[in-house]
Amino acid sequence: MMRGLAIAFTALMLCALSSACANQNPLISESSGAQNRVRQQADVHAALALAYLNQRQTEAARAEARRALALAPGHRDALHTLALTALAQGDAGAARRHFEQAFNAEGGADDVTLRLNYARFLCEHHEVPAGRALLEYAPRPSPEHAQRIQSLLDVCKA
Question: Which of 52, 83, 111, 149 could cross-link 98 (Cys pair, CB 3.0–4.6 Å)?
Answer without folding.
Answer: 83
